[in-house]
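ugh ok fine here u go
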Amino acid sequence: MAVLTSLIHGSGPRDRGRFLCLALVLLAALPATAEPPETERLALVMTSGISGRLEDGDGVSLAGLAATVREVADRARERDRTVIVLDAGRTVAPSIESRLDGGRAVLAALEAAGCRIFAPAALDLSLGPEALAVQSRVFGLQLLTPVVLEAGDGDPDPDLALLEPVPGVPVALLNVVDQRFAARVDLGEAAAVDPSSRIALLGERAPDNGLRVVLVHDDVGAGLEASGRLSWDTVRGENPPDLVIDPFLGQEILVRRRDRERYVHLVGRQAPSPGDPWRVAEIRLDLRREPWGWTIVRTDGVEHEVRPAVEPMPLLEARIQAARRLVRQVYAGALDPSSPATLEELQDAALEGVRQVALAE
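structure:
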């Protein structure tokens, strides 16, 4: 550029014009060096505590839940937030309504809601970790299982959800369950993984410049209260994640704790009782790029009431009706001799009902 400048100043008017045009062409050819944005805005739209029910305490069905999640997510996107939809557990259990159809109606509702991440609590695992993994795949959900499904040597490889909702902003999600409570659930040959070892592996496997999110479950439901011990231990532990979410902490709180150059954020929710209405949580995260990577500078949370669906969801509603028929058959006592007599036959009958409805539409 210095040579080009000397040539321009040492030439006549016509030559200087030609050199100026050449300079503009050269500058236009230079690669763009715009800096990436230093801030980002995310929203985690989260369900939890469905408890395997087909409708909540206000009589709103799973279709209403799915519609509400989609509405909350759409509004967050309108406010220029990138959205991640996930379910945080106690989802397909303990209600018999979900156990009879293997959790299919509830998982179908998560799929209809746009959910892609399912982090089960210990109680959800009572349906069987392998069966839960199969059903999650059927409905397009990534299962963040806190158990070892295949025994192997060495440290277990955690099921991480490695996302990049915004280019250049990686997010790693991990699910942990307190072993004291997981031991109360029949896991078959599977074994609950020590939470501290999983969190340590998260630090090793997650991208260096990304966000690390841990969903914590230290409850099993069915009358057992969550202690919160695992959540607080995670926040205060060595090399803690950026965000800890405890959907059944027992209180709705947003707190942060300073850890060297950054803050660790804890989000807790109130565990719903069986007769309570469902709610959808929206966790808003404001991020800033620091020399060591992305960090959370502000956390805000809103709880949204679930309302009945306005637009029809034919396939989901067919699954809900099939699950209701199963419940009615069980509670009806004596069944017609031609009716299904075993749980497997009941499940097959329900699936056949769903197939018939789908074909009719």
